Structure formats: structure tokens, C-alpha cells
Amino acid sequence: MLERVACVLRTRRTRDLPLAALPLLLGAHQIIESAVWRADGGPGPATVAWAVIALPLLALWVPVGVLCAAPPNARRRLLVPLAAGAATSAALGYSLAVRPVSALIRGHTLGYVLDLLRPGLLIAGYLLATVGSLLLSGDRWLRWLGALAGTGAAVCAALWRLDFISTWCAFAAVCSVVLLGWSGRRRPAGAAAPAGP
User: Fold this and answer.
1) Is 26 exposed, middle or buried (0-12, 13-18, 19+ CB in 10 A)?
2) Confidence of residue 188 (pLDDT cuts 50, 70, 90)
3) Are the C-beta atoms of residues 60 and 129 closer than 8 Å to each other?
4) Could you tell me where the DSSP H helices lie in the chain?
5) 3-state DSSP call for residue 101?
6) Which of 36, 28, 35 is nearest to 53 (CA)?
7) CA distance 82 to 60
8) Which residues share a beta bridge with 102?
9) Which of 84, 113, 186, 195 is 20 to 30 A from 36 (CA-CA)?
10) What residues contact residue 99 under an 8 Å CB cut-off, 6+ apart?
């Protein structure tokens, strides 16, 4: 957890804080999931809290954070993932507000059950918002994180189709450590580059 706090502490630009805080959010998300495990799944408050973070919050948090941190020349192309994130977040938030969500323990994984309208479209919008914004960021570290997250999504979908959301979120939490390197390399606007080779 210390590396997650360090990511925020090493951030030098205020506009980088939403992305720098992402590892903290994902770490808290995993702690909430441990409460889901302790409750043996089901539809309890920990399940709802986990789903709110995983679904509508992250669908909007990631593209907003990338847009804030992006260089000016990348911001226009990031409007597409941001729009996808806003629409996906609204649809997922509505679904969580009007439909029950439940967690099912399946061996060593958790599956979350929420009746969604047009789930394929929502997954595509979610991936465009999260992975797409990272890949279009114009930053080498963020593109690397996007490639890791995209690969993780494909692997988790192939290996744990029914438990995809939970396993991919755990994978993303581990991958978010890349942001520690990203936050330490960022300089405030106008700062001189370090001397040396």
C-alpha cells in the first residue's frame, strides 16, 4: 500500500493527481472485495460498494484522469474515450440504482451478477473509456499501462469469463503500480529537464 501512497506524494502537477490516486482507489477497491469474500458474497453493502467503484466510477475516473494529465496535443483525441466513459458510467450507474447486484463465490474467484441492458455495448464503451484513453494518452508510461490493462482484459475474459470483472479489477490494481514510475518522471510545466545524459 505504501507504493500507492507514494504515487500521490511523488506527483508534481495538480492535474496529475486523479491518475496518481488511481492506485489508491484500486487498492481500496480490493479491500472492499475482501469484505465481499468475508460476507460469502451475496447482495450486501460491500458488494454494492465494489460494483459502484468497478462500474460507473472507474468508467469515468480513468478517462477524466488521462484527459487532465495529457499533453495539449493529445486532448482532442481523448474526447472520444471521455464521451464513451460518461455514457457508460451513466448507464451503469442507472442499472445499479434500479437493479440488484449480487456476488457469487466460484472456487477462488468472485462473480458479480447485475442484469444489464446491452452488456456487449457497455463492455465496449467501458474498454474504450479506460484502456482506450490510456492508449491514446500521448504518454509512453500511460500507453504501457493501457497495453497491460488491455492484455489483462483479454486474458481474464478468456480464462474467467463468468468472473471477468473481478479478476480484471485485481489485475488492474497490480498493473497500476506502473503509475508510480509515471508520477516520479513527470515535471511541472516550465521546469528544467534534469542535467546529465
Assistant:
1) buried
2) very low
3) yes
4) 2-9, 17-20, 22-38, 45-52, 58-69, 79-98, 119-127, 133-135, 140-159, 164-175, 178-185
5) strand
6) 28
7) 7
8) 113
9) 84
10) 114, 115, 116
Note the Cα 160 to chain centre separation in Å.
19
* 106 beta partners: 109
Q: What is the pLDDT of residues 23-64, one digit of tens each?
A: 899 889 989 999 999 999 999 999 999 999 999 999 999 999
Residue type, position 185, single letter: R
Name the 3-class secondary structure at 105.
strand
**Residues 178, 188: Cα–Cα separation, whole Å:** 19
Answer yes or no: are the C-beta atoms of 65 and 139 closer than 8 Å: no
Task: Report the C-alpha gap between 61 and 5 in whole angstroms.
Answer: 18
Task: State how far Cα 179 lies from the chain centre.
Answer: 12
**What's the rounded Cα separation, in Å, for the pair 25 and 27?**
5
The three-class DSSP label of residue 54 is: helix
* Alpha-carbon gap, residue 91 to 113, rounded angstroms: 16
Cell representation of residue 29:
477497491
Burial (0-12, 13-18, 19+ Cβ within 10 Å), 139: buried
C-beta separation of 41 from 103 below 8 A: yes
